[in-house]
Design a protein that fits this description.
With about 325 residues, the chain is α/β, with parallel strands linked by helices. The protein is built from eleven helices and 14 strands. It has two domains: about 100 residues, Enolase-like, domain 1; about 200 residues, Enolase-like C-terminal domain (TIM Barrel, Alpha-Beta Barrel). About 30% of the residues lie in helices and about 25% in strands. Helix 7 links the parallel strand 6 and strand 7.
Length: about 325
């Protein structure tokens, strides 16, 4: 049966503004790949990211570049060779998983040989702002058990103190988004320890993270921008304690599974993360969330609205996807 590919660009309003060290957004711009066999349609969502040299136009072009291969029955293993890790491959890979699940009547985790996903607790992100702004946002979310605090600018020590005062009982993760330097690293790590932070994500730029090599790490440090797929993973072991597995970096669920297995073999802790997108982007990542020590799949919670058949969130508890959404 001949397959056909459809590519959609979508924009989803963010509730308020999402700010990190690299800038602010009020819209989540995503691309959805739909692959149909004439009866069933599989979908995958990705979020192009300028930090990795991606744009909406370049990612859509990359997806469309394999349309003839899709028509001729492209399989996931072949896709890994045609496209590099990144957003375009993620949308297609997840669409192929979804299509197979719908066509066979099996769930995606069964096909992958993974245990059925169960409800997990996700972090909730507090955007970068002034200490006063972040304290107010934290106070509003203080009942959530796990907060992810965006840092990476001047006055981060003040931000941390303000956040901790606003949510004295919440567990905290910090994400500096490459915003610290080797010179201020010790100061910021000391402030994190004082605030009882449990994990620090990507404190230094990936090009300069050699400064982490072999240093004492009383708080675990997690690689994000420094790791995409299995290539070079072993070399990061002396710099990081954990890795953030994001499907938009790995290029889909196929490589995410392999990356998680290799990271576990090497002794890394696992964080499952996301870009800001809809439930369709979160659903495949939930298949690996049960293996993670930290889960950050709050993208839909940051949106003003989500798509139909969305994931169910009960506070910070997120439930596995239904068949109509994905997989």
């Amino acid at each position: 049966m001949t397959r056909a590919l459809k590519v959609l660009q979508e924009s989803w309003p963010i509730a308020g503004r999402f700010t990190i060290a690299r800038g602010s957004r009020t819209q989540a711009r995503v691309i959805v790949a739909e692959i149909t066999d004439g009866v069933h349609t599989g979908r995958g969502e990705c979020v192009p990211y300028a930090r990795y040299g991606e744009s909406m136009e370049s990612v859509e072009a990359a997806i469309r570049s394999v349309s003839a291969d899709i028509k001729n029955g492209l399989q996931r293993a072949e896709l890994q060779k045609l496209l590099k890790p990144g957003a375009a491959r993620n949308a297609l890979d997840c669409a192929l998983w979804d299509l197979e699940a719908k066509a066979t009547g099996r769930r995606a985790w069964e096909i992958a040989g993974l245990p059925a996903p169960t409800p997990v607790t996700t972090a909730f992100t507090i955007s970068l702002g002034t200490p006063e702004e972040m304290a107010a946002a934290t106070k509003a979310a203080a009942q959530r058990p796990l907060l992810k605090i965006k840092l990476g600018a001047d006055k981060d020590v003040d931000r941390l103190a303000a956040v901790r005062a606003a949510a004295p009982l919440a567990r905290l993760i910090v994400d500096a988004n490459e915003g610290w330097t080797a010179e201020n690293l010790a100061t910021h790590m000391h402030a994190c320890a004082a605030a009882h932070v449990e994990l620090v994500e990507q404190p230094l730029p990936s090009a300069n993270d050699g400064a982490l090599d072999g240093i004492a790490r009383p708080i675990p440090i997690c690689a994000d921008e420094s790791v995409h797929d299995r290539a070079g993973l072993a070399a990061l072991r002396s710099r990081y304690d954990a890795i953030n597995v994001k499907l938009d970096k790995t290029g889909g669920l196929t490589e995410a599974i392999a990356l998680t297995e290799e990271a576990e073999r090497l002794g890394f802790s696992i964080m499952i993360g996301c870009m800001v997108g809809t439930s369709l982007a979160m659903a495949p990542a939930l298949l690996l969330a049960g293996r993670a020590q930290a889960v950050d799949l709050d993208g839909p919670l940051l949106l003003a609205q989500d798509r139909a058949d969305a994931l169910a969130y009960d506070g910070s508890t997120v439930y596995p996807p239904g068949r109509n959404l994905w997989g």
